[in-house]
Amino acid sequence: GNSVTQMEGPVTLSEEAFLTINCTYTATGYPSLFWYVQYPGEGLQLLLKATKADDKGSNKGFEATYRKETTSFHLEKGSVQVSDSAVYFCALFTGTASKLTFGTGTRLQVTL
Amino acid sequence: GAGVSQSPRYKVAKRGQDVALRCDPISGHVSLFWYQQALGQGPEFLTYFQNEAQLDKSGLPSDRFFAERPEGSVSTLKIQRTQQEDSAVYLCASSLVGGSKANTEAFFGQGTRLTVV
After folding, report:
1. β B107-108/B112-116 pair status
2. Could you tell me the pLDDT band of residue A97, with boundaries at 50, 70 and 90?
3. A62 phi and psi angles, rounded to 5 deg
């Protein structure tokens, strides 16, 4: 079956630091990959996605590259801000499934 | 409304009580999903509707869980005889499209936090 593994949090960074949140997956079939973000008190929001190998998804300064050879989709940002503090979820779906499979989430805390 | 709306935002139920959670999807959205998110975990799929048809209910954990979307818009998730392990945030998501592409364009509500005491 499908599964997603994320690095455990919380990840605590100072403002303007470089961010990496690791995500690896196993999937039956050829998955599409996603990063969702959950800000405090808000619902899940799609941050970025990639639907085929070597695609790079990007949004709001965040990037992730679909690496089929390493089954990974690591999230990166060059310079984090306090406003990026949130929980980040890696997710996938395959064409045979009618659902998203999520990782357990990684909490990011950015301090001044 | 502008987004997916869920009500109530918070619900406290005594063990054994029945509860009903409501989801108002974005107007015109064909697909509707329910997910369960336990504390410190990622969302877990419960069920999927395309219009009024429940196409996948493989994630419902027991026959105490029941979902409906009778007119293809508003959906209700009902949990009978609640147990402590049912305590979680219940998320609803909707998508304009149907089929597998619905997963690429889903909008989530803020969720209903259910606490069973």
Report:
1. unpaired
2. low
3. -90, 145
